[in-house]
Every structure is written in C-alpha cells, then in structure tokens.
Amino acid sequence: MPPKRSITLTEAELRLMKLLWQRGESGVGDLVAAMPDNAPLAYNSVLTTIRILEQKGYVTHRQEGRAFLYIPCVQEHEAGRSEVRHMLQRFFGNSRERLLLSLLGDDEITPEELARLKEAIANAPEDPDEEAVPEREDA
To answer: 83-90: which pairs have CB atoms within 8 A and are 24 or more residues apart?
Structure first.
C-alpha cells in the first residue's frame, strides 16, 4: 500500500508557493528563473513539484499557447492556518492551550511577542465563531 499523501507542504513546495504568492500567475520557466541563487531548483524539479502542488489543490493552471501558467488557489494565510492546525493535531492533541504553553516556555520569545500574545488573548472573543485580530503598531 502506498504511503498516505500529505496535505502539508514540503520545503520545496513551500518555496514555490511563496514565489507564486509573490509573483502571481507564472510559468515553470519563470519560477526557475525567480529561484534565489543560493537555492536554485532545476526545471524538472520545479515542474514535478508544481504538479504535486496541483494534485494537493494548492495551485491550478491555465494553458496559454503551449505553456501552462500556474496560479495559486490557496492564499498564504489559509495555508499557514492549515499547517498550524496540522501541527496542533499532531503534536499537541488539538490543545491550543498546550501549544501556547509550549510557546511561552520557549526561551527565545521576546517581550514584544509576549505582549502581543497577551493582547491577543485579552481581545479574544468569547464566541469562538467570532474572530479577533489585535492591531499591531509595527504592521
């Protein structure tokens, strides 16, 4: 039996998605050319990875002449939320409290980050269907 296909993004997939989110609709050649010099990917690697992203539902394509142009169909913030939910389930038993306590126990948390977390908690809606987003002065 083949392994279960993951809906999360590999590092290579995330690199391509970040390019697509920045650039918008792009061909494989455009993505290869846009790769950073310190982390290039070959044309065939980009083509294979973009096809996997399409199978996973992250991108779609349209044909222009002989070329396929790929378009992200998942927004960056949606992909991030999906990854966090996946991590929350895998490592923290779907407990947001355990995740937050893990973050608070991290020695690398800055006072600014801690203040924003406290503000987000203070502004969190009582009704979980509402969504509160704290205002950030540095945004």
So the answer is: 83/8, 83/9, 86/7, 86/8
